[in-house]
Amino acid sequence: MPVVMRRLRDPDINPCLSESDASTRCMDENNYDRERCSSYFLKYKNCRRFWNSIMIQRRQNGVKPSMPTAAERDEILGAMGKMPY
């Protein structure tokens, strides 16, 4: 597997892996009809927006790494009580 693909599939790097997989699966199942998968695209977009804001906050606060690891993300989501996106 190419390095770029490995990075995209790494749950520590890509916080929206499940949303990405769901939108791809929807496209496959619906013969690439984008209208039928718009809710999946919106959820992925909101996921990216949420984690990007977390990453910006961490960078401003000097926290390294700027993107939380998968375990840290689970803790953040658990503290919120529900999915924010």
From TrEMBL:
<dbReference type="InterPro" id="IPR009069">
    <property type="entry name" value="Cys_alpha_HP_mot_SF"/>
</dbReference>
<keyword id="KW-1015">Disulfide bond</keyword>
<comment type="similarity">
    <text>Belongs to the CHCHD7 family.</text>
</comment>
<dbReference type="GO" id="GO:0033108">
    <property type="term" value="P:mitochondrial respiratory chain complex assembly"/>
</dbReference>
<protein>
    <recommendedName>
        <fullName>Coiled-coil-helix-coiled-coil-helix domain-containing protein 7</fullName>
    </recommendedName>
</protein>
<dbReference type="InterPro" id="IPR048280">
    <property type="entry name" value="COX6B-like"/>
</dbReference>
<keyword id="KW-0496">Mitochondrion</keyword>
<dbReference type="InterPro" id="IPR051040">
    <property type="entry name" value="COX23"/>
</dbReference>
<dbReference type="Pfam" id="PF02297">
    <property type="entry name" value="COX6B"/>
</dbReference>
<dbReference type="GO" id="GO:0005758">
    <property type="term" value="C:mitochondrial intermembrane space"/>
</dbReference>
